[in-house]
């Protein structure tokens, strides 16, 4: 089983994160931000990752530190669970339609972190979730996991649909990328290392 646990405590947040990349989509998630919990549940369900996250954050300030720091911890957990990355597909791309919305997430587990976020505008808030934090979460996740990540909304009007489509597509794309080729146990790079 490819799994990892991360515990991280700062003056702003106290986070525990655990992921099993070969799971079944089981989750125990509490960030203190209802809509964000929903998005993380969708990410895990569509990626078929077992995911546990608990966060005690300074939500009296706002959700920024909690969301960003969960991205850091989840990224580190994915990176640690992958180990040497032997046999993985490495690349994953997924288009996800949701009503009027069409999202694209494409990623490379390259150890060259980068984020391209081309998702247009959102309503300022969805429930108690600040939608500017979608990009902050993805950046923290990508940079700590060592992933080149592209997220794009090709069509969409409803902010809930757009954000949900991004998280679902992220789960699917990551699932594709971390899937192992049973015939090949090498590191998927001509350099011999990722």
Model description:
- This protein is of the alpha+beta class.
- The chain has four helices and ten strands; from the N terminus they run βββαβαβββββαβα.
- It has helices spanning about 35-45, 65-80, 135-145, 160-180; strands spanning about 5-10, 15-20, 25-30, 50-55, 90-100, 100-110, 115-120, 125, 130, 150-155.
- The strands form three sheets. Strands 1-2-4-3 form a four-stranded mixed β-sheet, covered by helices on one side. Strands 5-6-10-7 form a four-stranded mixed β-sheet.
- The chain is globular.
- About 40% of the residues are buried.
- The model has no long low-confidence stretch (mean pLDDT about 95).
Topology (elements, then pairings):
Layout: E1 3-9, E2 13-20, E3 27-30, H1 34-47, E4 50-57, H2 64-82, E5 91-98, E6 101-108, E7 114-118, E8 125-126, E9 129-130, H3 133-145, E10 148-155, H4 159-178
Parallel strand pairs: 3-4, 7-10
Antiparallel strand pairs: 1-2, 2-4, 5-6, 6-10, 8-9
Entry keywords:
alpha+beta; 10 strands; 4-stranded mixed β-sheet; 4 helices; globular; 194 residues
What is the distance, rounded to the nearest whole angstrom, between the alpha carbons of the first and last residues? 20 Å
Counted beta strands: 10
Mean pLDDT: 96
Q: What count of helical segments does DSSP give?
A: 4
Strand content: 25-35%
- Oligomeric state of the chains in view: single chain
| Strand and helix order | EEEHEHEEEEEHEH
């Amino acid at each position: 089983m490819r799994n990892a646990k991360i515990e991280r405590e700062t003056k702003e947040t106290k986070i525990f994160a655990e992921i099993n990349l070969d799971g079944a989509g089981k989750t125990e998630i509490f960030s203190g931000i209802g809509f964000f919990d929903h998005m993380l549940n969708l990410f895990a369900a569509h990626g078929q990752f077992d995911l546990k996250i608990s966060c005690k954050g300074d939500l009296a300030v706002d959700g920024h530190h909690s969301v960003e720091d969960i991205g850091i911890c989840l990224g580190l957990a994915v990176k640690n669970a992958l180990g040497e990355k032997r046999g993985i597909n490495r690349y994953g791309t997924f288009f996800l339609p949701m009503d009027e919305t069409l999202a694209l997430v494409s990623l490379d587990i390259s150890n060259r972190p980068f984020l391209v976020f081309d998702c247009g505008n959102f309503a300022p808030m969805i429930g108690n979730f600040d939608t500017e934090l979608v990009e902050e979460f993805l950046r923290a996740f990508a940079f700590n996991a060592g992933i080149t990540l592209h997220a794009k909304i090709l069509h969409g009007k409803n902010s809930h649909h757009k954000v949900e489509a991004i998280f679902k597509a992220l789960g699917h794309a990551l699932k594709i990328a971390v899937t192992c080729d049973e015939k090949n146990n090498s590191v998927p790079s001509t350099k011999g290392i990722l």
